[in-house]
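Repro:
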Amino acid sequence: MEENFEVQLAKVENKQEKSFDKTTLILPGAILVAALMISGSVVFYSLNTGKLGANIQPTGQQAGAPVVGEKRDVSVGDSPFLGNKNAKITIIEFADFRCPFCERFYKDAEKQIISNYVNTGKAKFVFKHYAFLGQESVWTSEAAECANEQGKFWEYHDWLYNNQALESNLSFYSKANLIKYAGKVGLDSNKFSSCLNSDKYSGRVSADLAAGQASGVTGTPTIFINGQSMVGAQPFSAFKAVIDSVK
């Protein structure tokens, strides 16, 4: 009987150990699943904003928007452009310097478009302002036009995108700071300051916005390739397919 009691006791202890093991596995497992879900969400968000952990709600158009829209007759006018003015292909971008998806387009597809089509003489690339994210966007567009007055539109354009602040950081785009940035690209700061503070180019910026709206632009960036609209920070391959289809 004593031996049987010891055997029974061992069985009871064994059952308790098994029961304990299962219980202790539940909590760590739940924590692991939760951690994976959270990390996955962070990675997904960072891929769609380009700014890991950014606490903003972008208002431009990300990849995934309709790739090709309606064909429109969009006038170039005297907007800043790169490339051969008589090129067969005209690419017009409507953009806001504060839009994170415009920044993405600039750093990815735009650079490749310029390298493969503009620098080779096949296309010209035109920039038009679609300053719709508030007064700071308007000031920034006016500042770019003041830079254009000194022959450095594209230098200022590139600096703004390469140093873009979070959409919530309005002070970065104050007139005082925009004047300070002018010195970083070799502009005459005194002339630039006088130009920006006079609101000299407010009419041009407003006219570009109106032209974009008349052409069906509802978000940025919107790019027209010989009038064919493409919306969003699409990959270069998407733009290449449309450009190469131009006869």
